[in-house]
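Following up on my earlier thread - several people asked me to post the actual chain instead of describing it. Fair enough. Here it is, all 215 residues.
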Amino acid sequence: MNTPSELCLTLPVTTRDAKQAHDILVAVLDTVPIASVTLRSASGELEAQTAKILIDTMKKRGITALVADNPELARSVKADGVHLSWNKDSATTYADARATLGERYVVGADAGRSRHDAMVLGEAGADYVAFGIPPHVEDRNTAEHRQCDLIAWWSEIFEVACVACDVERPEHARYLAQAGADFIAVTVPIDLSPSDAVKWALEMQAAIATTGVAA
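Reply from S.P.:
Thanks for posting it. Predicted structure:
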């Protein structure tokens, strides 16, 4: 059996709910094994002051801290790197981010549903290749099956780490872990209380904790 998938968090943040996001982050990190956290603006730009407080909390606990889609902000707040969401020119977006951050930072990118884009990103030196499901996709069931197929394909052939993004249900997390994802990035419901967020994260962790794929 291969090593079980590790759990990552995607934390949507606005300045208005910054304290709620911080309380959730502390509660989850103090209870559940988490490999990394990606901060994503829930509306407008993510303010540097808000990001810095959350990133300092992660660093004190040895958690990899990423910022979504803003290499300049990632560098200014001393994050560990950047996660790049899918776009139609992912190769250029990756190249620009790498030029901004250099080799010391983590630069990972979502290839969407494109095998070609995934291979281009892997060859370009991305630290990980992700496969996510954009929010605008209406047929989530079909998209989830496609995502599992892409994860299984990538994990079987390539050595670059594979991340499954936009995961919201334990069942979905389990299927992706069985498909061979190295990391499962689950999106935290920011409207939960800290205690409910911990319960939610524990359910996600339990779904993938004992899952492996045949070597």
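The CA atoms of residues 48 and 212 lie 38 Å apart. That should answer part of your original question.
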